[in-house]
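chain below, 623 aa
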Amino acid sequence: MKSIFLSCISLLSLLTALPVNADKQPNFLFIIADDASLHFGQSYDCDWVKTPNIDKLAKTGLIFDNCYVVSAKCAPCRANILTGRNTWQNGEAANHRNYYPANLPAFSKKLKDAGVFTGSRGKVWGPGRPIDSKGVINDFALPGMNKSKPGAAFAHFLAKRPANTPFFYWHGSYDPHRGYPAGSGRKAGKKLSDIDRVPAYWPDNDTVRSDMLDYALEVERFDSHVGEIITELEKAGLAENTLVIVTSDHGMPFPRVKGHTFDDAHRVPTVMSWPKGIKNPGKRVDDLVSFIDFAPTFLELAGIDPSQSGMEITGKSITDIFSGEKQKPRPFLLIGRERFDVYARPGSTAGLGYPARGIRSGDFLYVHNFAPDRWPCGNPELGLKDTDDSPTKRVIEKLGPGNPYWEHAFGKRPADMLFNVKKDPDCVNNLAADENLTTTLDRLRETMMLELKKQGDPRALGEAKGDVFDNYPSPRKAPQGWDSTPFETKESQYFTPKQDLEGLNAQSEAVEGLPKVLIIGDSISIGYTQSVVDQLKGVANVERPKSNCGPTTRGLKSLKKWLGTNTWDVIHFNWGLHDLCYRHPKAKAYGNRDKVNGSLSVPLDQYEKNLEQLVTQLKKTGA
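prediction:
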């Protein structure tokens, strides 16, 4: 009798773990674009991109005006969706082109274990290698449908679905990811004048507008695929009880958007439709919603308690928005980035990242850059890898450092950035130094840091702990000649003409009682050091470091060593040749010099600041 009773208990537990009848439990259709900003046609008041299929869904569903990705790059963003956790909680999955940790759970696996029929087409997670410790490829319990067209793939998936079984289907588009055929938008009949507004951080010219139209054409192709898939859903009679989500993994593949920490990079178009489950369709949702909220929403609607799922989810379900009941408070959400494109900043095995965290609350976006000395797009001499190549990028690159558009796109950024995204959606006016907003900035920073520490973010717990993200390896092969030594400290970069090399060893024969002269500088000063020694013979003792002192960046690092313990009467310095040299990583000239395609080794404003710091230190010597 006891065994029968226990069997009944076991059976009851099993039954409660199984999904409810498909007529009651919704199906899930998740459609995600690859690199689309808020350009889903009429749904987001964009007339130069036509998306009739998405607009149709929006009329019978919800349009989300404040849906944010945590990280604006493909791999880390998709890890956020799968885990329901923030970037800094996902270990190696915080990075781009990485190894996906074998111990990270995915909501899709939980759904499959609960009896939901799962599948996918296209891009689920990547780029990177999702392989576990046994060498098994992780498909996230979303097996791919091998059909070329989106509609056919979805129809094939539905045909394989067991009767009366709820499903989850992930369609990962590759649009509007680059590259685009140049001029394709105009060839398709679009006009430069169609675009009502170019963002304030790009120059408004024909090249940029044409690039935007090429992108528009790709978004429209994505919309046509949405139409194919929805047609198959309706043909199967399943539209009524299917939650459809159409969104994008981050902003468009243009300078200062994809991969960055501004509003246009993180705030993405999101339309949801569920005729049977959304009580007040046809409206806009102003709530702050994060991509980590998707996983607990799917689980809850599938009858699985997110808090008991074993996934340690950080996100919160948004089912209250669907039901129309009293909604949960959502006072803020967090964003951030670590290492995106690899081999972009020398200093570790696969390159350093650009660590940043941000908080969006009310009208404001606050961002803290943990390493403002690094280049946000990667080192200029290595190609600014954290920004995809494009006609727009090349236009801005040619403008060069010091130009406002170049600085917006590629320039170094301060530790603290504060933007009023309601008044300044382009985030071009940093309000961090505004005394009237000191209280706002302090409040946001404190709220953010407290939450990050609560979530165990290594960056918030201390500088050394945060280095873990920089030191994760990448499956991508290192480029030829790559090492972990910062590019700016490589001795081979500091070219000295052969005829001037003797100047490295030139110095006076020390005569007691004579004034001491120190010459510090690049190869120009090396060239005239011997002449100075000859001219001041018997007048002063002349010395110089036994190396090319390179740019000001090297001077800041090595000045103390060069000064040594001597008391100098005169210090002559010369910096500029290497700072203001144009370099390009693919240039074949010595030192990667390329004045046509290259960029300045040290931007003019930074060169000026470096000189001021060096002069301040030199004055302290009393020379």
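The radius of gyration is 29 Å. The chain has three domains: 2-326, 356-471, 487-619.
thats it, cya
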